[in-house]
Fold each of these.
Amino acid sequence: MVEKFVDILKNGTVTIPRLLLNNYANLKISDKEFIILIYLLNDIDTVYNPSKISKVLNINISDVLSSISSLEELGILQIEIRKIDKKSEEHVILDNLYKKLAYITVNEEEKSSDIYSIFEKEFGRTLSPMEYEIISKWLDEKFSESLIVEALKEAVFNNVSSLNYVDRILRDWKKKGIKSVNDALKEKEKFVAKKQTKEQIFEYDWLNETKNS
């Protein structure tokens, strides 16, 4: 089978979509099903012809039928009956394959901006399994992702790349009833205002004020 496919590659132009090449394992299809899909993608004639597939790829027809059936069950292709000139024909429809590949692409893009990736980007390293568990625990405790990220920003602002530090911030906010980023920002404003007031009192020239009174 492999040798036959190599011959096809050598003797003609065969297009293998990079998305399919990179993700066929994620689609949970076998190597044999993958090769049949490549054939179907490159066959201009969409009429379903198991005998032709078997002959071209040198695959036993029973294997072709079982592979096509498996691809149907996986929702990767459809065999659709079409009437052409009052004659019914079975056609291979690959729209579901394209949709699945598109979904995988979009999902990967979303993953690149998920909360774990945000931490890895800020820390400049891959998170350990234990750190993944800690972040997962925060989510289980109903800390919102936006609030967790805000706590991370506070840690980074203070030059601390530690989940323990982020955890202390979250625990402190929880005690104060802070449940949103807006609440956290208001608390920070209060803290800054209070700190500035203390500094002004400390810098006040109490000695000269006493003399002038």
Amino acid sequence: MDYDFNKIISKFDLEGEVLSCESYGEGHINQTYLAEVKKGEEVKRYIVQKINHKLFTNVPALMNNIKQVTEFNRQKILSRGGNPDRESLSLVYTKDGNTFYYDSESDGYFRIYKFIENAIAYQVVEKPEHFYQSAVAFGNFANLLAEFDASGLYEVIPDFHNTEKRFKDFCESVRLDKMGRAKTVEKEIEFVMQRKEYCGRIVSLLRSGQMPTKVTHNDTKLNNVMLDEKTGEPVAVIDLDTIMPGSICYDFGDSIRFGCNPAVEDEKDLSKVNLSLELFEAYAKGYLGALKNSVTKIEKDNLAFGAILMTYECGMRFLADYLDSDVYFRRKREGQNLDRARTQFKLVEDMEKLLPKMQEIINKY
């Protein structure tokens, strides 16, 4: 669909002539465009996004999350003498002070960010240094927000990492067995059942207040980090649509889950699936170095376990979806979600064996 970007951009607090607004990036959730706006002799660039309001059904609450976090970050960055327009996502507000504009003609919710110049987001890890720098970026992000009261954030995806509920949902999928597949995956089902005690560990610590509730990004992939084009060092963390209250063990653990396994997500040859301690150490060094003193002892004691938990949870969700007839995770072939589950479970087994070494590395940094 074509949008009237001249009209849409005119609703925001920007002055100048819109030279262009073209499709940009490789995101799959929102529609993203790069706009060039000329004022006098100066041309500035902006990211314009049409928010997927079928997925993010409460756009005002979503955008209030982003406003709270980015404004908090900007003040922190300013206080230390940094450049908030470069080191943080920066919203451009509408002329009446809102975080987004609703266009009734296209039934579209639009937002604008200042474009971060001279920085790049890599889609894949081209060298180990990128993985380390992404750890520094997400560690910096967590450190900036360590004092932020996350309890006021809207839960974009309710119970996203509530592993107790995820386990109950899994048991229901096994009970219903919609496709009659349970008998063919008894070994995998038993794998999940044997580790039931994992599910309550972090949610209980959060619930009791023993572990602090903090801002979690919940999509800690390399392509959500902007790295400086020249130095390769982290500039800013982007894509804040899934920021929610939770534990930093979730973000750390999910980074390890997908970043420290050299095999593809649906690898059928499970001998290729393993945890790289070298990559684990690189990430832990970068993440903890950036967190500095904002990390608590209870968090340090559970970061390595967080990797096991996030991998176990992901495998459980893949297996439940296979039992439910592949309705949630997109698949390109029959049995792909089962292969994804088996890959996660093999990685869990590897992590369980290496947990003492993983914890040693955490303690080292």
Amino acid sequence: MKMFKRLLLAMFVLLLMGAAFFVIISKKFTENYALAAPANVMIPKGTGLNRTAALLEQNGVVSDARWFMLYARLYGLAGKLKAGEYAFAGEVSLAAIADKLVGGEVIVRSLTIPEGKSLAEIKKIVSDNPYLEGEITIALKEGEILPETYHFTRGESRDSILKKARQAMKKELAAAFAERADNLPVQNEQELLTLASIVEKETGVAMERAKVASVFVNRLNLGMRLQTDPTVIYAVTNGQMNLGRPLYRKDLAYDSPYNTYIYAGLPPAPICSPGREALLAAAHPAQTKYLYFVADGITGGHRFAKTLSEHNANVALYRKARQ
């Protein structure tokens, strides 16, 4: 009988100790603690629990990797932690850290391709992004990348971003061409894209785009040469677009199918990647009789003219403003 009582007492003590241990570790798992500093932690693909815990400790997210490993094993999370880049800041707990990794709450980064960039410039933007991986291997054509902000997670390939941007342009261009104005002097999507690229490079003023487009459409309809400087710059720089100096008169005689001072009609291909608004302006130009425009030299906008004499007067105003 005494032995039985002792056994019961021992079992009771063990239960109490187990309960106390459970309370202690439960508190350890769930209690919040403040990080010394915000930390971003990259968990590569194929990383196991031990290495994941070590990375968290190395980056100051957990004080002891063994506590994180114990929590993950007790709750069966060892094979459920997802790879990716994670951000930790402020107060955290072991449980909250594990939940974030199981839920794959990775950092979503962004890359912006501005309107009017050439393919060479776009490739440099993508290549210079430190959070993307791999070389650019896909074949791309000028103008087929839609300027936009694209979201990605660290470790995605550079090709994947460009494929996404190419598909976005394909969709936008098809919609613009399908809804284009009647009697527009473009025969296919490629010509509309080329016209939009010139509009994009000629003005950064949103409210002018349709008016600028109307000038080029009017000239095309009359068989006039477009005589637009950005096409010459594209020709002279071989698509780099950064001339690094003013455009000289001799450049206007540069023999290239892109030189619209020499050759009539649209150039053979786009000279940059136009944005949605430029596509819309090219597809729906304003109804005007303008044939000329020149910068006003003051606001960043342009003065438009129907006749050469009006245009020459506007050029004189521009030169005066520049002085």
